Predict the structure.
Amino acid sequence: MPDLSGPDVSGRELRRADQRYLTVGAGTSTRHSFSYGAHYDPDNVGFGALVAINTESVAPGAGYDEHRHSDVEIVTWVLAGALEHRDSTGAGGVIRPGTAQRLSAGEGAKHAERNASTTEPLVFVQTMLRSRHEAAPEYASLEVPDGPGRHEGVTVHADARLEVVRPVAPVDIEIVSRLLVHVTRGSVSVDGDVLAEGDELRCPDPGGRLRLVGDGEALIWHLS
C-alpha cells in the first residue's frame, strides 16, 4: 500500500503521482490511481462512482488488443500523440488531444486501443466509472475547447460529471458533493497546495470551495 500524505483537517486527501501503482507491459506502462489488476488494495477500490483512473504510456505501434468490459463507463482523454480506437459499437478512428471519448459498455462491449503512430509516443488518461447504462453499448465523443477556464466534458451514464479545467486565471469550484481533482498537464495550485501531473486531490465531503490557479490542466470529477 502506498505511503499516503493523509487527510487534512477538512478530510481532503492529496495523493501524489509517484504513489500510484505501476504496471509495465510490452510497450506499455500504466499508473493506477485505484486498486487495479495485480494491485489489489481493499482500502482503495474506488471513490464515488470512480473505479479506475489509469494513465497509459504507449510506445509507437504498441497498444491493447481487443478485450471486453461490461457495466462501466470508459472515458478517455489523450494527453499526447494519437490513439487508434475501435469497438464493438462500430465506432472507431483516431483520437487526439482535445477530444473526450466515452464508451458505455452496458451489457458488454469489446474495444481495442493502439498507438496510431509508428514513431511518436502516446499518453492518455482512461477513467472507469460504475455505470447506470444496462442496455446495448453506446459510444459518444465531445470536442473540448482548448482555451483556459472551465469546460464541460463528455456526459456519462453514472453519478458523476466531468469538467476540464485550465485555471490560468483563478477558478473557484464549489464542492457540492464528493469531488476529485486529477492534474493532467503542468501544475495547478489548489488552495495553496501545488499539484503536478498525475497528482490527485480527493474531497469526500460536500461544502466549501476549491480555488485553482496555474498553467496546467485538470480533470475535475463531481461525484454524487
Remarks:
- The mean pLDDT is 94.
- The first strand starts at residue 13 and ends at 15.
